[in-house]
Amino acid sequence: MPRHPRLSRRRLIAAASVGAATAVAVTLTATAGASDTKDQARRAIQGGKAKNVILLIGDGMGDSEITLARDYTVGANGRLNMDKFPLTGAYTTYAVHADGTPDYVTDSAASGSGWATGVKTVNGRISKTPGSDKAVPTILELAQKKGYATGSVTTAELTDATPAVLASHATDRSCQGPADMAKCPTDTIAKGGPGSIAEQSVNHKVDVLLGGGKQRFDQKVTDGKYKGLTVTEQAKKLGYQVVTNDRELKKVKSVKGGKPVLGLFAPGNVPVEWTGKAAAKGGTDPQRCTTSNPGRPAGTPELKDQATKAIKLLEAKQKHAKSKQGFFLQIEGASIDKQDHAADPCGQIGETAAFDRAVKVARDYAAKHPDTLVVTTADHAHTSQIVPLEAQPPGLSSTLVTDEGQQLKVNYSTNTPGKSQEHTGTQVRIAAQGPQAYRVQGVTNQTDLFHTVREALRLR
Ligand code: MG
Ligand code: ZN
């Protein structure tokens, strides 16, 4: 029996040769009998134009972080939503030094700049070149120019590196609000630059911006047209509807004039969903995670609800504009990384699970809109490792009792206990479905993702 009964060999070869940024072998990852998956795979390798792109980024979500969340929540032989994509590959994430030589461990700014612009840069930089510090056009800017609606959803501050790479250019990622410009002397409005990341984000009139970081937008603009206003007030002048909780987010409608929406749901990062004991030197007693967080105010929207609303708003915007183009939306699960830095396994798993529910929102949408390219990946790998129960690692560790009732030991040893645990330089998973999804297969480079999205949306 032929392996691809509904796909001619010629079509397979044609799909594989449509200007792939990296030569990849086109193979189906469907398991025997999984006709749904096979059907998705057939569609996924056809190439062609995507109407919409949904890019999901798990910050710091390496294979260890995925496996840990899978083991704890759905079991070792279970499957997360992010495990269900028909096409899967790996990509390298390294940054570069100012002279272009590789810097093997990336941060979120350099890695995000990689897929946002197709150009690798130095750690800490936002969508600018490594040596000359010049702005490089981003995928969101290109999509906007072509009439796509655009959006960015995150559990971090909206001015944090991963969302920042889409609609701003900054010498350093720390330049988040008008009062934070110390490391970006040439980016200030006084020096003729574009201003802080917060100011640039709203000046770009990204249609939907949902996340944390209200404190950055509450800072006062220091120069130029909006001097003396807060960035939030500047946003309102630019037409934004501003919402700060779940109830307001539910009520907001973009149809009235296609107005953009700015949602600021926390002063800083959005508080995490789960809590538990942090990993400790010598380990912890076996623990179950608490699937709630008393520090998370009522009315804080879940990532999946933000994602659902963002898709609705972007669709409504295009309908209002009578546009035939679709949308580009990035959705970030930011605190997988932040809890990994803090060696907090329950916080980390809860954020991975919350991210995975947002993946389901995207896949459910794509099931009804197969002209949507959905990509789920990470920006870099991280610390956590699953180790044998009898291991006595010198760093921090914790023993968890999984939903399967088994003990699992997780170790954090990329830095001295007491210091922030570190990113790692290993390749990470990239999985996709929909038009051009075949391009994620094999081993690619993070910058290839820029070309995949660009090709899918036909942005030149
Ligand atoms: Mg991030
Ligand atoms: Zn990090």
From TrEMBL:
Binding, Mg(2+): 59, 160, 162, 332
InterPro entries, per database record: Alkaline_phosphatase, Alkaline_phosphatase_core_sf, TAT_signal
Keyword terms, alphabetized: Disulfide bond, Hydrolase, Magnesium, Metal-binding, Phosphoprotein, Signal, Zinc
Active site: 108
EC number, as in UniProt: 3.1.3.1
Region named Disordered: 279-302
Known cofactor(s): Mg(2+); Zn(2+)
Record-annotated disulphide pairs: 175-184
Xref: SMART domains: alkPPc
Cofactor: binding details: Binds 1 Mg(2+) ion.
GO molecular function, one term: metal ion binding
One Pfam family cited in the UniProt record for this chain: Alk_phosphatase
Enzyme type, top EC level: hydrolase
Taxonomy, superkingdom: Bacteria
Family under the similarity heading: Belongs to the alkaline phosphatase family.
Name of this protein: Alkaline phosphatase
Origin species: Streptomyces typhae
